Amino acid sequence: MDSRTTVERTSDRELVTTRMIDGPARLVFEAWTKPDLMMRWWTPKSFGIAFLTCEIDARTGGSYRFVFGHPASEQPMAFFGRYLEVTPPVRLVWTNDEEEDGAVTTVTFDEKDGRTLVVVHDLFPSKAALDGAIESGSTGAWPEQFEALDHLLADLDTGQAPA
């Protein structure tokens, strides 16, 4: 496990993930809000899923829709929601509307000396909803996702095309 990423249950309903990312807040924020960048890092390779489509309207009141494919599933999986707050390059808040008991996610980007502390707060509507997310394994992807984000930012910084 990547020791640079912490994932902690802070209450019955909240999971908080933190990671210091090697890159300025402006670029880290863009990686979360531009479809071409998001598609390069968001899906953990170990999960065996592929990003099929990515639509992002990153503005307060805007929406997003991510569609993934997996070899074990005949049907693609869609994840979607609304942006409740978009404050470049410091804060994003969105809903996870694909489930009735979807979480509200708040991400903050705090730049220090060219690096960015990313803090992700997932607030679930109930203890059972968070328990279910943890049991499904979906909350365990962050270390791998953040590692991919670091690689993407390094590639962007050097002008290289990501692999």
Low-confidence stretches: none
CATH superfamily grouping:
START domain
Mind describing the biggest β-sheet? 8 strands, antiparallel
User: What shape does the CA trace take?
Assistant: globular
| Number of helical elements | 4
Taken as a percent bin, the fraction of beta residues is: 35-45%
The order of strands across the largest sheet is 1-2-8-7-6-5-4-3
- CATH top level assignment: Alpha Beta
Architecture, according to CATH? 2-Layer Sandwich
Q: What count of domains describes the coordinates?
A: 1
Helix content: 25-40%
Distance between the termini: 22 Å
According to CATH, the fold-level topology is: Alpha-D-Glucose-1,6-Bisphosphate, Chain A, domain 4
Which value, in Å, is the CA radius of gyration? Answer: 15 Å
Oligomer: single chain
Rounded average pLDDT: 91
The overall strand count is 8
Note the run of SSEs as H and E. EEHHEEEEEEHH
SS-based structural class? alpha+beta
Please explain how this structure is put together:
With about 160 residues, the protein is an alpha+beta fold. The protein has one domain (about 5-155): 2-Layer Sandwich (Alpha-D-Glucose-1,6-Bisphosphate, Chain A, domain 4). It is about 25% helix and about 35% strand. It has an 8-stranded antiparallel β-sheet. Strand 7 and strand 8 form a beta hairpin. The mean pLDDT is about 90.
